[in-house]
Amino acid sequence: MAGFTVGRRNIKFAFLLPALIYLMLMAILPLVWTLTLSLTKWHANIMPKPEWVGLDNFKYFLFEDPRFWRDLGFTSMYVGISVTGELVLGLIFATLLSQKFKGKNFFRVVYLLPMACPPIAVAFLWRMMLHPDIGIINTILTSIGLNGVKWTTSATVAPFTIIMVDIWEWTPFMFLALLAALQSLPTELYQAAAVDGASSWQMFTHITLPLIAPVIVTISLIRIIDAFKLFELVFGITGAGPGSATESLSFYVYVIGMKGFKLGRGSAISWLFLIILLIFALILISRFKKQRT
Amino acid sequence: MRKHYLLITLFIVLSFLFTASFIFAGPKPAEEEEVEAVPEEKPPEVDLSVPITVLVTDPHIQVVDTWKPIWEAQTGGKIEVVLVPYATLEEKMWLEFRTKTGSFDIACVPVTWLGEVFGGGHVENLEPYMDKYGYPNWDDVMPGVQRITKWMGKTMALPYDGDNHMTYYRKDALEDPMYQEQFKKKYGYSYHTPPLNWSEVRDIAEFFDEWDWDNDGEIEYGVAFIAQQNSQAMWSFMDVCAQYTTIAGKPSNYTSNIFFDTETMEPLCKSPGWVEAMTRIQELTEFAPPGLLGYGYSELRQAFVSGNSAIAFDWGDIGIQEQKPVEYGSKVKGLLGYGPLPGAKKYFDRKTNRWVEKQHTVNFLNFGGWVWVIPKAAPQKDAAYHFGIYMTNPEHSLLDVCGIHGYTGANPWRWSHFKTPEAWVRGGWGEESVKAYLKAISDILQDPNAVPDLMIPGTPEYYTGAGSSLDVHLNAVLSGKISPQEGCKRIYNDWVRITEEKGFDEQKAFYRSSLGLQ
Fold first, then answer.
1. pLDDT over 60 (residue B2)
2. What is the H or E stretch that residue B310 is in?
3. Is A51 at the interface with chain B, CB within 8 A?
4. What is the dihedral of CA A280, A283, A289, A292, to 10 degrees?
5. A217, A233, A215, A207: which is closest to A281 by C-alpha?
6. Ramachandran assignment for B364, one of left (phi > 0), alpha (psi -120 to 50 degrees), beta (any other)
7. Residues near A194 by beta carbon (within 8 Å), at least 6 away in sequence
8. How far is B244 from chain A (nearest CA, A)?
9. Do A243 and B502 touch (CB under 8 A)?
10. Region for residue B356 given its phi and psi (left: phi exceeds 0; alpha: psi -120 to 50; beta: otherwise)
11. Is B166-366+454-514 in the same CATH topology as B49-159+369-438?
12. Is B23 a residue whose pLDDT tops 50?
């Protein structure tokens, strides 16, 4: 009987093994490989082999490289403003379009279009529209007597241009998820509240918001993690400029690893980036759990 | 039965259309235009049975696309083209050099990257190929262009492009007597055409900024140049920097030298010459179109030939686009004047550590040009060399540089290109225009004391590299985020670090060698 059990267990592992090997090769191995690389110095275009430097690369970014902190600061500001903006606008649109009116379905489809565009195409589209000399937006502004704006060429304005485009692109995601959440709410609660004389605002703040809070937390978490990886918009619209005014952490990783071929440092900053994202995610998830309990 | 009739009728109609399309379709434009001009090739001595892969960026794709079908038809060979944008060309190239997968056989790359490429032994020495298969008229290649293909005395690349910045100006603005009079009244002197120095450029740019001086109903601006980050803005800066940092002469520590002290390898970035140049170029942004910081080479050329500025600084490409109203929307055909880069009224003499007040001009071979290289790991090296010399022989390269093939990104680089103005006229140029244009370029390329561009290991890093670079700090200065002094200080610190990382003594030896010093 014991032999039969061992045999069945072996067969079970035999079936699992290909999937496990695949996972190891595709997911774990690259992580371990980059972790190892992050402890080395390897300028791939001039050094044939990596040199072991221990934690030097991590020390460099954390204590010696102001650009890392500046990019982290910009990325955090961008995530904070854009995700908040998307959430607020998404909630407003979802609330409006959950009402009954003619042409509702048309607007629902139209609002989803930006999200369906590839990010690099979105970047190119907006780059053309926001071009300070020939862009359609400045042409409109000047035709009505206003001054054109240096959307992509002013160090002050350019960060907000990136945020604006991101909000345009990703508000539909929030809208879609929140609309689905709103439509799944039970109507009895609202009927009871109406009988008790609650105003629309009271119903929204005391019934709607608490009920859709889990959805809000989940989609915010998804968007925060995604927004932290900001790359295409920066690459396509401003090229991280002017100066490094719109340089995101992802772009910096690209510059170090792919433009500078500093594979050790590129791996180290990638790992730091991953750790920062994990910390954010863990904080948000634990807050979410607390809220539920 | 009826069904069968229908099918038969359909078959006949389709056959008719198919045949008619062959009869009435014209030949491909490139073939139609070029086959007559190209003499029959000798039977190739190399094995062309396997396709070769060409790595190229825009706008050089135009050259490959033109010659590919003709070469294939004449030789029976086959070419596959990999087109990548300029921004990703470097990483594509290095990926191949590191992995040695043989993903391309020949690549068109800028010479400024070649310090590491040549020094690292990543590409073939082409001299054995030249000995074996010959090279079409090496003596026809201008000396300055020959120099950029060499490393430690060996020819490592096929020349293809002669690059240097020059001045373009609107003749209808700068040569208008009424405007000249108004300018003199305002500034108290008469400017030269083309402007003699950067002080004149500043005043002219201010004078012509933000008003409709060509009466086309649109506002024009004073000056335009490449200023976009992650592009080629550093060469716009070096145009100015060369004039304030050194004086022309046989390259030495104190003449025709703008990057490092040749004795100490200390970067010159903090020198008063650099700071002055940084201040000047920052000031010019005030008299430029609002989108200036978004001007890469394409944007600059498109904007200038559409008539938006009085002066521009660029390689020879604006001149080509000027001639093509249909293809590139040029509104300035015949309206442009050409000249060398402006000089300066003074330069900082590091020998005496003081400013010397003297009108002078330093010719700077910025960027240096594009060349073709054959990677060590290329599987079809001989065939790649065959195609390389086919594209760049005197007859073919003339068609690529003179405008007959449109905007190719290749500028004149053979003596013969300058001696055949009739070809340029066929390319859409006016006779007077082309004389002035070719003179401006050849004056610079023939200057034996022209300052060579930085071409040592790490050049991309010094210019646009990771975590540092002239490009990033320059852009911060141009956008007004930091002062010129601060910008120069940051560049200096980065350059010191990069030099230390690459190896101080090795870099010094490479740098001295690039200037022809022992």
1. no
2. strand B309-314
3. no
4. -90
5. A217
6. beta
7. A203
8. 24
9. no
10. beta
11. yes
12. no
Phi, psi of A103 (to 5 degrees): 85, 10
Domain span at A20: 1-30
The string of pLDDT tens digits covering residues A20-58 is 899 888 888 889 999 999 999 998 877 778 999 999 999
Among candidate residues B297, B164, B291, the one with its CA nearest the CA of residue B230? B297
Answer yes or no: are the C-beta atoms of B278 and B285 closer than 8 Å: no
Rounded CA separation B313/B79 (Å): 36
Which tokens go with B39?
């003499």
Region B183-190 average pLDDT: 97
Residues 6+ apart with CB under 8 A from B496: B266, B267
State how many domains chain A has: 2
Two tokens, residue B260: 């490092």
Helix (H, G, I), strand (E, B), or coil: what is residue A48? coil
* Judgement on whether residues A150 and A203 belong to the same structural domain of the protein: yes
Contact B475 A243 (CB under 8 A): yes
The CATH fold of domain B166-366+454-514: D-Maltodextrin-Binding Protein; domain 2 (3.40.190)
Which of A128, A153, A263 to mutate to probe the B interface, most B CBs <10 Å? A153
Alpha carbon distance B100, A27 (integer Å): 25
**What's the pLDDT band for B127 if we cut at 50, 70, 90?**
very high
Mutant choice from B98, B117, B229 vs A, greatest count of A C-beta within 10 A:
B229
Q: Which amino acid is at A57?
A: N
**H/E segment holding residue A56:** helix A56-59
- Tell me what pLDDT residue A190 has: 92
A37 φ/ψ angles, rounded to the nearest 5 degrees: -60, -35
**Cα nearest neighbour of A66 on chain B:** B467
- A173 and A282 housed in the same domain: yes
Chain A nearest CA to B393, separation (Å): 32
What is the CA A138 to chain-centroid distance, rounded? 29
Query: How many angstroms separate the CA atoms of B518 and B508, rounded?
Result: 11
Contact at 8 Å (CB) between A165 and A123? yes
Gap between the Cα atoms of B277 and B242, Å rounded: 8
Q: Residue B349: how many CA atoms within 13 Å on its side-chain side?
A: 11
Which CATH number among 3.40.710.10, 3.10.180.10, 3.40.640.10, 3.40.190.10 corresponds to the domain B49-159+369-438?
3.40.190.10
